[in-house]
Amino acid sequence: MVSEVSILIPVYNQNVLALVETLRQEASSLPITFEIRVYDDGSNPETQHQNKSLKGVLGVVYQGMSQNIGRSQIRYKLAQEARFATLLFLDNDVQPVYPDFLQRYLAAGDEGVAVGGVAYKGSPPAGQELRWKYGKSREEASARERQKNPYQRVFSSNLFLPKEVFLACFPKNELSGYGHEDTLFAWRLQQHNIPVQHIDNPVWHLGLEPAEVFLLKSQQAIHNLVLLYQKYGLGEETKLMKAHASLTKWKVGQLLRENSNWLFPLLKKNLVSRRPNLHMFDLYRLLLLDKYLKK
């Protein structure tokens, strides 16, 4: 059983006081040595002011970056500077679902990688319907379901693993912007035959973006997916790439491409509405994927 753990939280424009206190209280009740490292990646002044109160809190190491260094690099820096050989990564906009959250990970052991999963609450906040619907339908899943394809749904938003595995496999600065660093990480785990264990230990994803922001992030993610495909041949197994291959095979892609000028605004109108359709979102992403692949 793990006896020492570094809990690592990269922060960007998010108050993490409640999350840190939840983790600190449970960790303090367990027979383990722990630290909670909170690194702020160039947040706005208000967020920095709020989170700076963590300085001096027993068991917490708070550090602020003078400028934003990016999603991958801040995680890599946290891992490099962690004191202990076992890491727990959490995003800054989550909260554990279960009160024995840490205990569940400790029981999973210290070999390989453990993924707890993500959950979404019962109804979407106004204006964030697309992100909630996508997360509820495509990301939320039981451990049994996730274990069927263990190298999918490996999210660094809720991840428990040895420090040496993370440093060896996680992309430090190969991707910029949002999206698919976890795809590259999971591929490398598979290449090294490192086992991935999915357990039922989810976190609530609370920091949902408005539809406009989520669409922009989705565009950045597809750009990164194309980069991974071109550099490593990754992504062929994803539903999006498979759908694109089918469209190309049946020569539908050209038809969609010729009509993209009016399709994009039509799809976007639905996606930013209160009742977004995920099939329309898939088509929207397919058009973007085709656009980037043709560049």
Please tell me about this protein's structure.
With 295 residues, the chain is an alpha/beta fold. It folds into two domains: 4-205, Spore Coat Polysaccharide Biosynthesis Protein SpsA, Chain A; 211-293, no CATH class. The protein is 47% helix and 15% strand. The protein has 13 helices and ten strands. The chain has helices at 17-28, 45-51, 71-81, 101-108, 129-139, 143-147, 163-169, 181-191, 211-232, 239-249, 253-258, 260-271, 278-293; strands at residues 4-11, 33-40, 60-64, 86-90, 94-96, 113-115, 118-119, 158-162, 196-198, 203-205. The strands form two sheets. A seven-stranded mixed sheet has the order 3-2-1-4-8-6-9, sandwiched between helices.
Order of helices and strands: EHEHEHEEHEEHHEHHEEHHHHH
The largest β sheet comes out as: 7 strands, mixed
Overall number of strands: 10
Question: Taking strands numbered 1, 2, ... along the chain, how are they ordered across the largest sheet?
Answer: 3-2-1-4-8-6-9
The fraction of residues assigned to DSSP E strands is 15-25%
User: What structural class results from the helix and strand content?
Assistant: alpha/beta
Low-confidence stretches: none
Radius of gyration: 20 Å
Give the overall form: globular
Organism: Rufibacter hautae
GO molecular function: transferase activity
Keywords: Transferase
Protein name: Glycosyltransferase family 2 protein
